[in-house]
Amino acid sequence: MAEATHLKPLGPVHTDVRHVQTALDDLWDQALIETRAFTGNVIALTTSRHLKRVQDALAGLEGRYAGRQILGVMDGNDLVGVQVSLVPQKGLYVERVILNANPEQLHGAILPLMRPATINHVWWAADDAPGGQLLRELTDIADQVIVDSLSLDVPPSVHYALADLGWSRSAGWREAFAQIFDSPDATLQLPSLRTLKVTHAGENDLAVRLFAGWIAHILGWKDLSAVQFAAGECTRENGDLCSVELRGQGKDGKAVSFSLETEGKEMCRVRAEFAGMGRQTEVMIPRMSLSEGLERVMSHPERAPVFEAAWKLAKDSLEQGSLEGQ
User: Fold this and answer.
1) Is the pLDDT of residue 305 over 50?
2) Exposed, middle or buried, 71 (CB in 10 Å: 0-12/13-18/19+)?
3) pTM score, two decimals?
4) Where are the alpha helices (DSSP H) in the chain?
5) 16: CB partners within 8 A, 6+ apart
């Protein structure tokens, strides 16, 4: 990437797959920038319905994470439409290539456009589960796959780092909840905790299932049978956490409770009650935009063993729920 002085978007220019680099070179000439440094590729696979949302999310990234953005719009026809642009991002120009085609056409069009010898982020930004060869082909060369892994049933793999945006959205909650147990007297209560209740905004409970899987893994629970999921009322976005409460009984027979609950848009109240002790504090848990979620997973990969353990517990709970509903 190169530093952009006027931050003026250049393009889009309509071209074809064979002449993408030529069209980009012409745009670089217009930018009057001679030196370019290329970081990584981000390949976003989406549909026309979500294209604007994906473009907005990518526009919020810093250019240092991916110098070339390739957007594959999968509900096109047999004719591959290609647009190229230089997009300013926080003081840098990044290259953006948009391909409109069907998955079969994209299958052979994306790989030649990827910058070699750089990090490859593949983002499945579509509602439907991936099928065919397109995603499988890209995961072969991906360093990181970003996907709503529970709803689309994309499991962790040894071939790439799996990043889940729902997991990323709960990062602030995990950090805040872990801080409750920074004091030794609170840590001593962990073995007595037996049940967990989590409430969430809207109907989507996938992100909170990953959060519950994280807590269950930390506490050594074998499954999520002791977890209650419920819709809550808060000002968070659909799928975000509203409240968390861990309960149990101490050795003295008294109730033990640790909770986080939203108050307003970003403020959360923390409560800890055990052995005659009562504590209340407040903590800020900012809401995370889609751009911020992408930036986090690209710049701060989560510890794979912890995520994978949480993912397995969450996935098993979904499968168990499906069996019970039959």
Assistant:
1) yes
2) buried
3) 0.83
4) 20-31, 51-59, 103-109, 134-139, 165-169, 171-180, 184-187, 206-219, 290-299, 304-325
5) 80, 82
